[in-house]
Amino acid sequence: MAENIKNAERVIHQINVALKYLEGDILPALGMDNVESEMLLGIKILEAQENERKRIARDIHDGPAQYIANAVMRVDFCKRIIEKNIDEGLKELFELKEILKRALKEVRDIIFDLRPMSLDDLGLNQTIHELVKSITQDHDLIINLKLKPVKDEIEPIIQVAVFRIVQEILNNVKKHSKAKNVEIKLDYGLKYLMLVVNDDGIGFDVEKTLDEVKKRGESFGLLGIMERVKQLQGDIHIESKRGIGTTFKIKLPVNRKVLKDEGEN
């Protein structure tokens, strides 16, 4: 009985927080009323988002992906049974197999997009390498990586943010830039990291595009990049020239302690 009451109170509190959030009054709802709490709120939101993505990714991996893989194996079994006299059936089975293989690839792509498991297992740099490998297989694009080795110098949630930013920038490159070459540089010190991504694409009018983004809510990728940087109290600078290309320069803290220290100064 006591446990049920606690659960009910927890649900009511969550509903109140959600309502306050919709009203634009999230900090008082969470009991936060100082500058430090406001800055750390961005970290908490990112952690919640990434935890949910991780759960969904694991569910898809253990569920539909396994069923599809099993179906591909069953098709091969059926093929051996009917191959002697049912040519049309073999043709249908072959087409079905190809469809299932494409579906399996799409499911794995969704998993990678939601939460690359290699981010936990292999780390930031290798996950970026995997992303680049996937992109260059499907697009006529050369991506050069200059990444300083990362172990535990950068906090995991910051690593996630860096990966998401790289992912969004490369999505923009694929969709809009018409670039042939991209260079990604990652360096860091004791307090901050610097991410620089430049391409040789067609470029764009930065001020005009940002103005349109803010007014119309277009280009969610660009909005997502700027929002992540803002949540982490970072800095972003975009340089672009028509016919020359675009450069993103992004500075982020390497951990939340930097955020706390900066808030106290």
Structural write-up:
It is found in: Cytoplasm. This is Oxygen sensor histidine kinase NreB. GO terms for molecular function: 4 iron, 4 sulfur cluster binding; metal ion binding; phosphorelay sensor kinase activity; protein dimerization activity. It is a single chain. Mean pLDDT is 78; it is low at 14-27. Among the domains are: 2-33; 121-264, Heat Shock Protein 90 (2-Layer Sandwich), CATH 3.30.565. It is 65% helix and 14% strand. The protein is globular. It has a five-stranded mixed β-sheet. A hairpin with a 3-residue loop joins β2 (181-188) and β3. The longest helix has 28 residues, at 35-62. With 265 residues, the protein is an alpha+beta fold.
> What is the chain-wise order of helices and strands?
HHHHHHHEHEEHHEEH
- How does the overall form come out from the CA principal axes? globular
Radius of gyration (CA) equals: 23 Å
**Into which percent range does the helicity of residues fall?**
55-70%
CATH superfamily of the domain at 121-264: Histidine kinase-like ATPase, C-terminal domain
The percent range for strand residues is 5-15%
Q: Unreliable segments (pLDDT under 50, ≥5 consecutive)?
A: 14-27
Subcellular location: Cytoplasm
Organism: Caloramator australicus RC3
Protein name: Oxygen sensor histidine kinase NreB
EC number: 2.7.13.3
Give the tags.
single chain; 265 residues; Heat Shock Protein 90; 5 strands; Oxygen sensor histidine kinase NreB; His_kinase_dom; metal-binding; protein dimerization activity
List the helices and strands and how they pair.
Layout: H1 2-22, H2 26-29, H3 35-62, H4 64-82, H5 87-114, H6 118-121, H7 124-138, E1 142-147, H8 156-177, E2 181-188, E3 192-199, H9 206-216, H10 220-231, E4 235-241, E5 245-253, H11 256-264
Parallel strand pairs: 1-2
Antiparallel strand pairs: 2-3, 3-5, 4-5
Helix pairs in contact: 3-5, 3-11, 4-5, 7-8, 8-10
Cofactor: [4Fe-4S] cluster
Catalytic activity: ATP + protein L-histidine = ADP + protein N-phospho-L-histidine
Protein name: Oxygen sensor histidine kinase NreB
